[in-house]
Amino acid sequence: MDMPSGSHVAWWYGRAIRIYFGISLLISAMWLVKVAFSTCPLDVSPTTAQPAATCTEHNLPPPTYRRASTDHIYCINAPARRGRKARMAELFTYLRLDAHMFNGSHIDAWRDMIKMGHERALITEDDVDFEVDAVASIRAALAAVDAKQPKWDILYVGHCSMDETQGERVEKSVRPFCTSAYVVSRRGAQRLVAYFARNARAPHALDVQLVAMVKRKMLRAYSVFPPVVFQRRDLYPSDDGMELRVARLFRNPAWNEAQELVPRLANWADPPDADHMHPAFQYIPKWMEHRPTVN
After folding, report:
1. Interval 22-46: pLDDT, tens
2. Helix pair angle (106-116, 186-198), 10° resolution
3. Which domains does the chain have, with CATH numbers?
4. In 3-106, at which residue ranges do the beta strands (DSSP E only) sit?
């Protein structure tokens, strides 16, 4: 068998090289055509990177932030409590809630609500947590209370009263201690602002005064049970301006004051005893004493 001559070997070698480069050029041309007509840029180098919003093939819609079926959400937060503010901001982002970190008191929030023209607002404190289905539960509770009493004043969605109506329902409040979270109507905010404008120097906790108003039928108050917002006393941050001692974590003046008031509320029909009457009931303004009660 004759061996191929050197010229034939060189010819086949050159032909193979031409075929290889031809295929490479064809693949490169196809890739360039794909890049030119693609809707999503493939170049992700630092100098030519495009924002994610320009890539429309697999984009998810932007998150929709809600207000829990209210007009506004206030989270009461003092400027010094930066740790609480950061934690609550993350919590609201997770829940997709558009909340306002409000530098003021509950009374200031009521006034701001009236000034801004909101019909109903959710007000929370900065040491709370939400149940996973809290937003849906608040929406359902608002629908229920609207059906029960369209002229309601306040709906407690977070409270620390174990003797509220049992079961998953919305009923009239009995002893709604704590102001962890509640929805207040414009009508309720106006009543509260009017009451505290004439009763601003009462030396007792806010929630105790609200209980007194509920018991005297000055407010149409309803509660959700079980509550869908609750306080987290174990989540005190370390950047509140001082080192918190362990003993302080479990010492809550409002809760202690509420515990002292419970026996008197349990026997509300008894004649008032000046020696044992809680200060909350000594500061009911005279202008509200003779107002007709609400049902």
Report:
1. 888 888 888 887 777 765 554 444 4
2. 130
3. 72-233+252-289 (3.90.550)
4. 72-76, 100-102
